[in-house]
Amino acid sequence: MNPPPGLGIVKGLVETARNFVGSFHDPARLTTVQYPDERLPAKENARNFPFLVYDGPDSEKGLRCVACKICEKECPPQCIYIILERDANGKPQKHPRVFDLDISVCMSCQICVEVCPFDAIKMDTDYELSRSDRFGGLLLTKAELAKPNDYYRRIHPTEAQEVDARLEEERARAQAKAKPPAAAAKPAAPAQPAPA
Amino acid sequence: MLITLAGAAGAMALRNLVHCALCLVLAFGGLAALYLQLGAEFIGFAQVLVYVGAVAVLIVFAILLTRNSETRVERLSAASVPLGLGIAVLVAGALGGAAWFSGFAPAAAAARPVAGVRSIGERLMTQYVLPLEVLGLLLTAALIGAVIIALKEPGEPG
Amino acid sequence: MSQPLEQLLVRLKDWLVLQCPPAAQGLVAALIPAAAIVAVFASLFALTTLLERKGLGRLQNRLGPNRVGPFGVLQPLADGLKMLIKEDIVPRDADRLVHLLAPVAMVVPVLLAYAVLPFGQRLVAVNFDAGILFFFAAGATTELAVFMAGWSSRNKYSLLGAMRAIAQMISYEVPLILSAMTAVMAAGSLSLVDIVGSQAGYHWGWLPRWHAFTPWGFAGLLLFTIAATAESNRTPFDIPEGESEIIAGHLVEYSGFKYALFFLGEYLGMFAVSGLGITLFLGGWHAPVPALEWVPSVAWFFAKLFGFIFLFIWLRGTLPRLRTDQLMNFAWKFMVPMVLVNLMVTAVWHFTRSWHFSGAGLWRWLVGALLLAGPYLWLGRALAGGRRFGPRSYHYAS
Predict the structure, then answer these.
(1) Mean pLDDT score, A44-51
(2) Is residue B93 part of a domain?
């Protein structure tokens, strides 16, 4: 059987009255965040546009990017422009001289992050990117893109932990390969006559 | 008085039909003002409520739903002027003669009659109850007729 | 009971009239209440736009405007300034004269309607013998203004919106006037001052004799409020000005000051019809308890008016919009039978007032309430069309 007519309206009125009264004392009933004065923290999985990670205090020397240009080739709208750094003799250095990313073209697909073998480019969560120039102003250069690893750890803690652990392990493995041959060479040489 | 006459003249003479309807509204308003000047409050307000509020809206709906009001009304043809004048004279004569010969007492003789609502109501229920009931019947018949016209015929598509 | 504030106001008006030369005294005596009404209700309009936006915000779990001035109190000023300096666009093919006259034809009759409302014990601009009829006559011209607005814009959608608006307003005039008639029957006079006077005094010293405390008065107040909401095109009946439907309906070609005038006309209409509801059913300027009679009667009237305004804002924040056909069905199939039943219950109440045995009041109340509740429940069930209203159940989803 249907409830008496008009009851639904009364129930609705009671609910909105609760909203009204609650909005003065109950934070669950007033969900406004007054934007420029207060900001909601971004969620961990948020992504906006890419940025370059550097380890250590120096943004040039610590830059993880080696200018392999994989991200430039894989980017669907082709928004990345890389020029490799060469020294006086023309020998390639593992460092980009120019790394430009046009965020008016970038579609935030994250493919560059997925293909980078060096964990050098990651997604940023910053959305306050207004510029007064529509063309040049939205072309971010290497200096603007480079941000420290601490920043990466702050905005994506779990990812950063995982990347740091992996990089640490790789470094340890590389060091172990470098040391044991040097250490094994010495004990191997004197060890050779001993067991012989 | 002037407003009423101007409104009526406008209702006849203007080209755009909707403008004519609005001038008619002005004429109704003028008539209500005349009633008020004569001290008949009830009739004056009822005139506004019924004529301006309902009849004018009815006229406007009728104009909109039946003809394209973009078309201008045609000019008067030369032959119709004397005919129109003749009819106007006849109608005015009939109404004026009826008013002249009905023999009501001049207003100076009596104090202004208080046509209060209470007295109107009492007369309606006692002296004039037959016209009241007939009017009610007429209105009911009109309502039923309107509903029947608006109903879809059974068996007819659409 | 002599109300000092009202006496002061009346004396002030008389003194002002005496200051003028004798030839102009009649005119000034008529102009002063008119100027006062316009001033008070125009500022009430500004206050209401602010209250509405803040109130709707709070009802919807958000803040209203709070940037202009502390708590947004200067927002109406900002809105008014914006409306005034906006460019006045008139479509090329529009009927310029009618386009200009429509907002005027909307606001002027609505302001006229305030002339018969009694705001305080001796504060009524004109005391007509047929006051209620004057009020409804002034309200009926609003429909014509809506038509003029819709027609003169030379816009098909505007015309369609105007037609729907007029159909809605005419349909709800019938329940509005008939539910007002119950109060007229009880008071025995069409004059609003007499109707307020018939609600003076208290039952048993504490329950006011307002019409709203009788079964027919309670139903009448509800029906009147619903019809009033429909007449002023407020949600849930705001199809004509539905912002998400045909944009602004008949007002779509209006901008700037003319739009502000329509807005003003709508809100003034809302205040006027609330004022009438207060006068007819809620005892006008009477106080609710004898202990509080020292508060000026004007204050009581405006307190009740604010109550009505809050109710309208509350309804707006709660209910979804009705479709045009639902609206018309509701008017003709539910409201009109209910107001007719209400009229009969008023008659029953009137003819049983000679019952004087103990508990008579309660018996009369019970009889009236039952006579009303029966058709209400039956009509509600019948009009639901056999549909079950309850929590949704799904065929395939678990």
Answers:
(1) 91
(2) no
Query: Alpha-carbon distance C192 to C358, whole Å?
Result: 33
Question: Of B25, B41, B46, which has the smallest distance from its Cβ to C144's Cβ?
Answer: B25
Query: Over the stretch B11-55, which tens digit does the pLDDT of each residue have?
Result: 777 777 778 888 888 888 888 888 888 877 888 888 888 888 888
Determine phi and psi for A131, rounding to 5 degrees: -130, 160
The DSSP-derived string for B63-97 is: HHHHS-TTSPPPPPPTTHHHHHHHHHHHHHHHHHH
Tens-digit pLDDT profile for residues B48-75:
888 888 888 888 888 777 765 555 555 5
Inter-chain CB proximity C389 and A23 less than 8 Å:
no
Q: How does DSSP assign chain A, residue by residue?
A: -PPPTTHHHHHHHHHHHHHHHHHHH-GGG-----TTT--PPPPTT---SEEEEE-SS-TTTTB------HHHHH-TT--EEEEEEE-TTSPEEEEEEEEEEETTT-----HHHHH-TTS-EEE--------S-SSGGGEE-HHHHEEEHHHHHHHSHHHHHHHHHHHHHHHHHHHHHHHHHHHHHHHHHHHTTTT-
> How many CB atoms neighbour CB C151 within 10 A?
26
Chains that touch B (3 or more CB pairs under 8 A): C
Is the CB of A9 less than 8 angstroms away from the CB of C318? yes
For A19, the closest chain C residue by CA position comes to C59
Structure tokens at A138: 């939205």
Q: Name the nearest CA neighbour of C142 among C76, C50, C240, C47.
A: C240
Task: Pick the closest to residue C147 from C160, C129, C131 (CA basis).
Answer: C160
CATH of A50-165, one of 3.90.226.10, 2.50.20.10, 3.30.70.3270, 1.10.490.10: 3.30.70.3270
Query: Is residue B129 in some structural domain?
Result: yes
Which amino acid appears at position B26 of this protein? L
Please state the domain count of chain B. 2
Domain boundaries, position B143: 116-158
What is the reported pTM?
Answer: 0.82
Q: How far apart are CA C58 and CA A46, in angstroms?
A: 30
Pick the residue of C59, C315, C333, C377 with the most A CBs within 10 A to test the interface with A by mutation.
Answer: C59
